Structure formats: structure tokens, C-alpha cells
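forwarding from the other thread:

> can someone predict this with NDP?

sure thing
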Amino acid sequence: MAEAKTVHSPALTYFSMISLLTLCPPFVILLWYTMVHADGSVLQTWDYLKQHGVQGFIDIWPRPTAIAWKLIACYAAFEAALQLFLPGKTVEGPISPCGNRPVYKANGMQAYAVTLITYLSLWWFGIFNPAIVYDHLGEIYSALIFGSLIFCIFLYIKGHVAPSSTDSGSSGNIIIDFYWGMELYPRIGKNFDIKVFTNCRFGMMSWAVLAVTYCIKQYEENGKVADSMLVNTILMLVYVTKFFWWEAGYWNTMDIAHDRAGFYICWGCLVWVPSIYTSPGMYLVNHPVNLGTQLAIYILAAGITCIYINYDCDRQRQEFRRTNGKCLVWGKAPSKIVASYTTTSGETKSSLLLTSGWWGLSRHFHYVPEILAAFFWTVPALFGHFLPYFYVLFLTILLFDRAKRDDDRCRSKYGKYWKKYCEKVRYRIIPGIY
Ligand code: NDP
């Protein structure tokens, strides 16, 4: 079941799982501490840890406070209610490996609009000041770390005792089951999809909410917002808006259609996205760099172009699949491979692989603009410190690993047809290079 078992050697798989399980939580706290209390300087934090040792680290780890739990609970309940009750078109996800077809309510864009309007209105009318969120950020991350671990234990138990569909199963190993998850489409009741909640409505939504929070905090602190912060916030918001605009398309991607609900995906979306993905903005709060209008506009334009290309790659693939290849790709009939595969229940099905347009440049070309966009919303921080660039580095490693995982999975799914695709489109990510 869980893909990672087949991709790397067992020793490397266990090593990386255990490392990520143990190192990610303290890393989130160290990143927050460095951004907020150590001027974004890794060296400063390193010196502090050298002087104070483990006790020093325990001292900087904020305890989850009542206000942190309250903020998280209100936000989670609000997002869950929007997911359940806002109207939206019914859409079907892709056929699962067990031959099921999950059904979703596509109300992400509405939820996104309601969330941002509500948050800004609370601030505007003086009901709630988002700067409070920044002031309690460490406690919030601490609460998220522990709360999400408990949530992943719940997912593990649910996978064993009450799976929502036949797309579930145990690898026979407790660490793999906990880390990679057991259920592909866990639900509470018939309609509340847990992965839509964790990945989209909690994780991705928190990215936009925190981007706005950082901007407001800088405004409250300095009475104005630096152009670097504006460029960063606008680009991150354009990216998240694109995500919700295309949310139903996201339900066809690896995260939802292949990765099971466990620590990797769910803890990642509940903790890693709100902390690490938003970190360039977190850095800018107390580093109000002035870029000047011209440079700010160039960076903004470059970032928006990358986000658009990334969107267009995803759109092209999905339009091609949706129309069964009867569409135009860059103004021409698409070139394609008709690939057949066998589901776990033994049925033979066929699928189309696009070999022109963006998908003819390399097999995962869409990762190039994704990484560049992240670079462009970080570069307003300029080059005083390395830490704001951690997300770009992390994303690059994540996507290069993901391209390998996806290639391996597709090779075992499509066999000779995938080989044919690789012969036709030789490069994995960067055309002509890799
Ligand atoms: P996708 O799921 O969109 O694409 C991979 C899948 O598409 C494959 O598993 C295969 O699935 C199908 N496929 C592969 N090649 C072709 C082809 N030539 N023609 C048609 N279908 C093909 O990839 P991702 O989930 O990785 O990416 C989706 C989006 O999310 C991207 O924009 C990416 O940049 C972004 N992303 C962002 C991350 C972040 O942390 N910021 C992390 C990961 C992704 P099938 O089994 O259906 O054939």
C-alpha cells in the first residue's frame, strides 16, 4: 500500500520516517523562535543553544496556552462549518486503486472568500485584532504540534477499527501505518472528508490567514506596511487564491488520490504548512525591507507569471483528461499515449498520458514554476539571512523526491506505456538537464 516502501531501500525509508517524526516538531519551534526572537539569524539561535543546551531548548518551547487552544478551536470549527454547510457543485474524484469514486462538494472558493472577508472585517470593526495571533504564534504552533499528533493517532485507530471505504489497509507495520496512513479517503459521517479539511480548509486556508496576519502585525507595529511585505503577501495570496480556484483539481493530485491520511500528509498540512510555508512572511514582520517601487513591481510580475504557469500546467493536464484528449493544447491537437492498467480488484482500465504542451517539456515541469514562485515571494527579504529561504530549499527537496515517487508509482501502474512516455519525454523536471 504506502508508496514509500517501494521507492527507497527499507533502511532509508525507516530512517527518513523516524527522522521526520522526531525532528519536524522541534524544527517548527526553532524556526519560529529564530524568526520572532533571534532576528531570523540561525547563528544567534545556534549560539543560544550552545550556551544553554537542552534546558535552553526546553525553555524556549512555548507551552500551549488556553488562548492558543481557543484560537485554533474557533478557526477549525469555523472552517469545518463552512466545509459542511456552504453550497457547492457536486464533483467526483478520480477512480481509486480499489475502484471507488469519492464524491466532494466543491465550495472551497466560497469558504476562502468568507474566511478572508470575516477575518478582515473582525479587524476592521475592532472585534478581533489579528496581531494577537502573531503575538501567540509560538503557543499556537506548540498546541498544533501536540493536537495534530493526537489527531494522527485518531486516524490510525480509525483506519483499524472504522475505515470509511475499501481504500484502506494496514502494511502490518505500526510505524508505516502511522506515518503514511491507512485510509485514502477517511470521512466523518458520509460528507465530512477529513483530507479536504486537513489539507485544504485548515492547512492551505491558514497560509492565507497567516499571510494577512503578518501584514497586519507589521502595520500595527510600524503604522505602515513595507513594499517587501506587500509583495510577499500579495504573491502568497495569489498562490492560495489559485489553489482554491482550482481546489477540485487538487482532489485529482497525488496528495488526495494516492497519499493516505497519516502523519506525512495530515500532520504536514496541520502544522508544517501554517509554520514553514508561511515563514518568509513571518520573517518580514520584523524586517521591513524597502525594495523601491520598480524592483517591487518586477518581483511581483515575475512571481505572478510563475504562479500562472504552474496553474496552466495543472489546468492543461486536467482539461486533457476531462475531455478525454479532445481539447487543444497550445493551439494544437494534443499528442498522447493511451495507457492501460489494472486496478487492485483486477479490472483493466485505460488512461491518457499527455505528451505535448507543458507535459511534453518534462514529466514534472509544473514543479519548476512552483519553486520559482516560492523564490519570488521570498526574495523581497533580500539576502541578509538564510532562514527565509528555508521554504524554497525544503520545497525543492520535496518536489524532487515527489517526482521520483510519482515516476516510480506511474511506472508500476502503467508499465510499458510509462516507459514509452519516458522515451518520448526524457527529462524528469528540468528540460535538458534533469
Ligand atoms: P499531479 O498529481 O498533478 O500529477 C501527477 C499525476 O498526474 C501522476 O500521478 C499521474 O496520475 C498523472 N500524470 C502524470 N503524467 C501525466 C501526463 N503526461 N498526462 C496526464 N496525466 C499524467 O502532481 P502533484 O500532485 O505533484 O502536483 C499538483 C500541484 O500541486 C502542482 O501545481 C504542484 O506544483 C503542487 N504541489 C505543491 C506542493 C507544495 O508543497 N507547495 C507539493 C506538491 C505539489 P494518474 O495515476 O492519474 O495517471
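The CA atoms of residues 15 and 78 lie 38 Å apart. thats all i got for now
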